[in-house]
Structure formats: structure tokens, C-alpha cells
Write a structure and sequence with these properties.
Elements lengths: L2 E3 L1 E3 L2 E3 L6 E5 L6 E6 L3 H20 L2 H17 L1 H12 L3 H21 L5 E4 L7 E8 L2 E5 L5 H14 L3 E5 L6 H13 L7 E3 L7 H10 L3 E7 L2 H13 L4 E4 L4 E5 L5 H13 L9 E7 L3 H13 L19 H16 L3 E4 L12 E4 L6 H4 L6 E7 L2 H9 L6 E5 L3 H10 L4 E4 L19 E2 L4 H7 L1 E8 L3
Parallel strand pairs: 1-5, 8-9, 8-11, 9-10, 11-12, 13-14, 13-18, 14-17, 16-17, 18-19
Antiparallel strand pairs: 2-3, 4-5, 6-7, 7-21, 12-20, 15-16
The chain binds nicotinamide-adenine-dinucleotide (NAD).
Amino acid sequence: MTIHRDLLIAGDDVPAADGRTVDDVNPFTGEVFATVAAAGPKDVTRAVDAADAAFPDWAAVSPFARRKLLLDAADLLDQRAEQAVELMAGEAGGTARWARFNVFLAANILREAAASVTAPRGEVLAAQEEGALGLAVREPVGVVAAFAPWNAPLILGTRAFATPIAAGNTVVLKPSEDAPLASGLFLADVLRDAGLPAGVLNVVTNDPRDAAEVAETLIADPRVRVVNFTGSTEVGRIIGTHAARHLKPAVLELGGKNAIIVLDDADLDHAVNAAAFGVFMNSGQICMSGDRLLVHEKIADEFTARFVTKVASLPAGDPADPETVIGPLVNTRSAQRVAALVRDARDKGATVLTGGGEPDGALHPATVLTGVTPEMDLHYGEAFGPVCVLETFASDDEAVAKANDTEHGLTCGIITENGTRGLTVARRVRTGIVHVNDQSVGDEPQAPFGGVKSSGYGRFGGRWGVEAFTTTRWITLATT
Ligand code: NAD
């Protein structure tokens, strides 16, 4: 039976003002998994009304009560793990392994947000007048507009609202059209069931054809004070432009073209396993996925042989099968897009070491290429699928130059047994995140997460995330 979900506004499930709905399709079966309400501008305004009305009371709730609620929500999310596994497979083809990791990390994001609630929120400042007092106080901003993607829906949906809410703001969340439940309504249910007051978290789902109008209406609303968006660089530019036009700060977490550098002193077993994980986890549909494997020429032959054998053996198919590593992509359109990138590279002279070939519906084979050059679309374009490019280098300088030869700057992995050498290379790579002796994928909620260059700006995580969703006020007390 198909699930139907309405919008979540002011704690109530409400249909769209004009009654429209949109299908949420299972990419593996091609069947309709759910239908959701398709919001228009009136619904967006209703959601902001609710968030704005809830703000003063929520901001005044004791931090200890806010902390307890977020901790209860984390436990509830853990208890609903199996429901999340079904949703993630049904909406976006996520494997069970990936879904369980999503639950684990999303629950930890809630716990980290809970911990942030009782951290000090200000400083005492020097004051000009004798006996006077100056305070710098961090306070919530009001209504936050949040946009979440489908690829790690529980993690990135939760990230979009957890810290803003913990800081005392209220939120209007626009989940991805490819995972409206897992990146939005399912999470909001968890928070609601944990006792979140009505209006603190509102969810507007939409028809993809209305995305631009919905986003613009939300960002333009004068009651919205900060925007966060996780998605592609292309749409990030549009969201950032709207935010700038309305003078609203934005956290933009965008695309990547991440390198995994394998230095010549790497432990090869570790390098092969780590690289396979970093490239192919969630079929390469992670912003931090390794698109490019840069391997020292001294070890390139052995690394390549072992890596290609491993990739060719990765189980592919039904996301519900617990063994599956390469599940379907989010939709057949995405599989065709990835296939076109591979075809373009092959036609222009690249060598396919494993994989390639046409997709089967939304399933694209795990693919490794070499000989990819700048005139091929894959050289600079984000694959966002189970595809990586192998290149060699002869020196650390050359590895750094190749890693930096991209408009993106999200993350990088440097696999080496030599920590000093790894850190030296890490400091020269222009990305927001670097993992030494590891691959490129890693997210921990206490750490500053975000990119440089076209991968966006602003940070989620830790105190950096709190700063993004609070404003600092200067308050003075004069003596008489
Ligand atoms: P996307 O940018 O294609 O879509 C994001 C959302 O943008 C959609 O849900 C859609 O509603 C909205 N949108 C589309 N057109 C719009 C328009 N004209 N105006 C306003 N909104 C519009 O991204 P996606 O497919 O959901 O996610 C994949 C991308 O996200 C990849 O590039 C990936 O690297 C990136 N990503 C980044 C991070 C990070 O933390 N840096 C994390 C996950 C994904």
C-alpha cells in the first residue's frame, strides 16, 4: 500500500493549499513508494507563520529541557532504525548498510546538538567607563530556512535543523523531492514524538517543478533570518544569490571533486580497502566520495591491480539485500548521467579498467577509469555515482598540484604511514577537510564540516555550527 504524507505545519499534518500531491518513486522497482503534498508559495508562507509564531516561546524554553528533548529524539531515532532502512531503500535506493550508518550518525548529530545547548553563550568584555559591564551574548536568530538533499537523507536532514533548533531557533525544512520522508517528514515525526512543540520544525515537501519558486519564497520571507542549503554547487549558487539579495547569512554545503592521494609509503591493504570504501560507499553518492585516486607511480601497478580486483567483486543489486554495496542510484536519470560521463571519457580515449557499460535501470556498475584528460567531462565534473578515475604522480608536489586542480574544495584523503609527511601534504591541499591515513569520507558532528572554493562556505558541526545559527549581541550596563 502506498504511503501518503501531508505537509507538517504548526504540529499538524496538512494538505497543500491547492490540494496537489506528487509521487515519490522507488528507483529500484520504478513503482510509486509514497505520495506527498506538493507545497506552493501559500504553504511556504503558512509554514513561516508557524515557525515565527513558535519562536519566542521556543527560545525561552530552558536549555535543560531542550537538551532532554534532543536526547530523547536521538534515542527514538535509534529505535526506529528498521523503519529508516525501509524508507531509505524505498525512496532513494540506499542500501541497508548505508541506512544504518545514517541512523547512527543522525542520532549522534542530535546528541551533539543537545550537548551544545548548555555550552557558555557569551563573554564579559572590557568597558570604557569605570564599573561598567560589557557582555557579548550569542542569541538565536529566529526562523531558519533549511534545505536537505536525498543522498544521506537522515544525516543531512537532521544536520539542517538540529543545531538551529538546539540554539533556540525555529525551522522551515524543505526536504529533497527524492527523499521527502527520510530527509524530512520521518525526522520531523521523531522530533514531534519526542515532544518538540508545534511550529518549531515545519516541513514543506514539493513537486520538483516548483523547487525554484518554493525556495525563493522561503528565502525572501523577511521573517527568515538564516539559510542553510546542502546540495549541488549549481543550485547552491542560486540559493546563495537569493540569500545575498535579501542580506541573509547562508551556510552552503555543496559539491566536491575529492582526491584520495596514496603516497608510496602507504600500507597497500589499508589503501585498497580505504579507497574502495571512500569511492563506492553509497554507490559514490556522497559529497565526500573520492572521485579521483592519485597514486604514487612507484606503487601504481600493484595498487591498481588489487584495487580493480576488489572493485570488480563488490556485490551489486537490490538495496534491501544486506550484502549489497553498489545499490541503484537515486533515479534512472542519474544513472544515465553517470553513464554519459563514462561514455564521453571512453570515446575521447580513456581506458575503462572495470565496469563501464550501460546502466540497468538505476543500477550503474562500479567503474574505474584511467587516462582521463581535461577535455573529458569527467575530469572536472563531479561523478556523484560509482565511478572513479586513477591517476599517478611522481612527487608530493605533483600530488598536491593535481589534488588542487579543481574548482571544488570539500575534502581529501591522504594515505600514508608517515604522519609528518601526511600533515605536510594536508596543509597544502585546498579543501575544508583532510583525513590523513584515511580516505575522503568522514563526518563527525563535533567537528567543523564544510568546504572552500565552489564547495561552499559556512560550517556545520561543533561550536562553528552554533555560531552559524546564532547572532552575537553587545549589551552594556552603565554605572550611575
Ligand atoms: P541539487 O542541488 O540538485 O538539489 C538540491 C535541491 O535544490 C533539490 O531538492 C531542489 O528542490 C532544489 N532546487 C533545484 N533547482 C532549484 C532552483 N532553481 N532554485 C532553488 N532550489 C532548487 O542536489 P541533490 O541532487 O539533492 O544532491 C546532490 C549534490 O549535493 C551533489 O552535488 C553533492 O556533492 C552535494 N552534497 C553536498 C554535501 C555537503 O555537505 N557539502 C552533502 C551532500 C550532498
